[in-house]
Amino acid sequence: MVQVDVLSRLRGAARRGAPLLACVLVCLSAGGCLFAPRDAEPPETGDIVRYLAQNEPVNTWDNLETSLNATHTPGWEGAISSSSFLYEPDSATENQFPGVFASWNRERELAFINGLYNSQVTIVAQMRNLEFVVPPSSGSESLWEDVIYDVTVTSVNPPSTIRYRGLADIKFTLEGNFWYISEWHDRQGESDPGSGQLLSTLGVLRGSFASK
Description:
With 212 residues, this protein is an alpha+beta fold. It has 2 domains: 1-44, no CATH class; 57-210, Nuclear Transport Factor 2, Chain: A (Roll), CATH 3.10.450.50. Helices cover 36% and strands 25% of the residues. The protein has helices at 2-30, 57-70, 73-79, 91-96, 106-117, 202-210, and strands at residues 86-88, 121-126, 141-155, 160-175, 178-189. A hairpin with a 2-residue loop joins β4 and β5 (178-189). The longest helix is centred in the first third of the chain and has 29 residues, at 2-30. The termini are far apart.
């Protein structure tokens, strides 16, 4: 009697599952269904700008690139140390803007980036050359030497497109659990890879805004 009862239950379950199985087969043959593979969702659009967690220096530096390309101030502000920040221009820029960088600190850096982003510009930036080897971090400081950045700024009023390319040394400091930029030393302008024309560093752009 027990065996007969078990067999009866199994037959009943099979009969109840038959419609579901038929539905699955129909859906798959029709090429679309809840169970069929779907294309990947399109990427998010809109004003959301996503930054990397600054748990290593490379993420902090790459957040500057994201900030520039999106002209989004919080990314730049979040990467610059609130404890101590020093910007030192290359000698050509120092001579072009004498005295402007004598007391350059976080406050002036943020005034510069806000002024730039609020001046109707579009920016295309690559903040480290592909050949640059990111050095390992040690202790609470990390020094990047000879990093080349490339930034093109297109302005609406007055209409202009200017490319900045510089060789720089960057110092990162670990504050709590996150890395911040504490020093930025522009060493020299770099040549345009296409034309060979010597380009200015971002110090010239900083100096232009600071002297307005």
